Amino acid sequence: MALFITYASYSQAGIKGLLSKPEDRTGAIQKLLDSVGGKVVAIYNTTGTNDIVLVSEAPDGSDAVALAMAVSASGAISKAETVRAWTSDDFESVIKKAAGLTGAYAPPGS
C-alpha cells in the first residue's frame, strides 16, 4: 500500500467541537480509512501552520485525497493537503525513471 502524509488545520467549527467534547480522534480517522482498506500509521497534533499531521496507508492516492475531501466537507477542518511519501528505497525507482527521461522534455520556447 502507498504511504501518505496529510496536513490539516481545524476550522473554527472543528475547534469548537473539540472543546465541547475533548477526545482522541484517531478512532474516527481509522474508521474512515477502514472504509477504503487503509490504516492510520501515526497521527500527531501539531502547533504552527497545521494542527494535524496524519501518516496513513491507502490503496492509492485517490483514496487518501477523497478521505481528506470528505473530512473537509464536514466543516471540521479548514484546509487539508495530502502528499505521497516514499521510503528512500522505494524512491530510488522514481529517481531512476527520472534519470531515463532527462533530456526527453522540450521546454517552452525551445
Report the total helices.
4
The average pLDDT is: 94
Shape: elongated
What does the radius of gyration come to?
Answer: 17 Å
Quaternary structure annotation: single chain
Computed structural class: alpha+beta
Biggest β-sheet: strands ordered side by side in the sheet: 2-3-1-4
- Name the helix and strand elements from N-terminus to C-terminus, one letter apiece: EHHEEHEH
Distance between the termini: 40 Å
- Unreliable segments of 5+ consecutive residues: none
User: Main beta sheet: strand number and arrangement?
Assistant: 4 strands, antiparallel
Task: List the topology elements.
Blueprint: E1 2-10, H1 12-20, H2 26-34, E2 39-45, E3 52-58, H3 61-73, E4 77-85, H4 88-101
Antiparallel strand pairs: 1-3, 1-4, 2-3
Q: What does this entry show, briefly?
A:
This protein has 110 residues and is an alpha+beta fold.
Structure notes:
It comes from Parasedimentitalea denitrificans. With 110 residues, the protein is of the alpha+beta class. The chain is 41% helix and 29% strand. The protein has helices at 12-20, 26-34, 61-73, 88-101; strands at residues 2-10, 39-45, 52-58, 77-85. Strands 2-3-1-4 form a four-stranded antiparallel β-sheet. 16% of the residues are buried.
Protein traits:
110 residues; alpha+beta; four-stranded antiparallel β-sheet; 4 helices; 41% helix; elongated
